[in-house]
Structures are given as structure tokens and as C-alpha cells.
Recover the amino acids of this structure.
């Protein structure tokens, strides 16, 4: 299955996403708590897919997408956002994110989106 990087500053979200994806046989190669760390982990592992929270400290998810896609144009990044962050998600899609999922996420929704890209 796919190698995946999870970037989210909330430990509960990272744990939930990990549980869902590992149950389907995907390998979580790294986790990041901010956009800067996500970029560095991406460079380290070059995973098949990234799940990226929009609102994170240090470097937000939108800037992290731009940083990753500038260096790795074929990166597959799925944004995860709250309803009140639609503008940021739109910006992330323009920077190269492939899709977005609105919080709260469900197992079915996350797996359906992941299947589209891996």
C-alpha cells in the first residue's frame, strides 16, 4: 500500500488518521506537527501521499504545500480543514494540493479520497 505522511498539530487528529490508514494497510512513514516539519519530513521520505492540516503553527499547511510542491511538483497532498478556513484551502489548492476534506473527517470519506490518489 501507500507510504503516507500525516501533518497535523492536534495529536488526536494524527492518531485518528493513523488508525484509519493503517487499518487499510497503508504505512505511516512520518508525522509532523507543523508545516516546517512536514516539509522536512517530505524531503526525508518522499511519501506517496500527505494529509495536511491547514491551520498549524510555525508554517501553516498552505505555505507547506507551496514549499513541497515547488520542490516536488508531483507531490500528492490532501488538505484537511475546518469550515471556516475555506479561503485557505482554496489557496492551498492553487499552490498544488490535490484535494481537501472538511473536518470533522469520517473514515469513509478519508479512505475514498486516499484511494483516488494512491
Amino acid at each position: 500500500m501507500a507510504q503516507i505522511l500525516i501533518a497535523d498539530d492536534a495529536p488526536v487528529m494524527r492518531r485518528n488518521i493513523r488508525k484509519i490508514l493503517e487499518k487499510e494497510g497503508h504505512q505511516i512513514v512520518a508525522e509532523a506537527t507543523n508545516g516546517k516539519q512536514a516539509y522536512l519530513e517530505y524531503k526525508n521520505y518522499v511519501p506517496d501521499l500527505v494529509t495536511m492540516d491547514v491551520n498549524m503553527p510555525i508554517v501553516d499547511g498552505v505555505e507547506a504545500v507551496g514549499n513541497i510542491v515547488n520542490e516536488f511538483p508531483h507531490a500528492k497532498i490532501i488538505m484537511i480543514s475546518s469550515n471556516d478556513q475555506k479561503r485557505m484551502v482554496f489557496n492551498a489548492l492553487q499552490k498544488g494540493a490535490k484535494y481537501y476534506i472538511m473536518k470533522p473527517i469520517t473514515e469513509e470519506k478519508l479512505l475514498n479520497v486516499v484511494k483516488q490518489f494512491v
Remarks:
- The chain has a mean pLDDT of 93.
- Residues 11-23 form the longest helix (13 residues).
- The chain has one domain: 3-117.
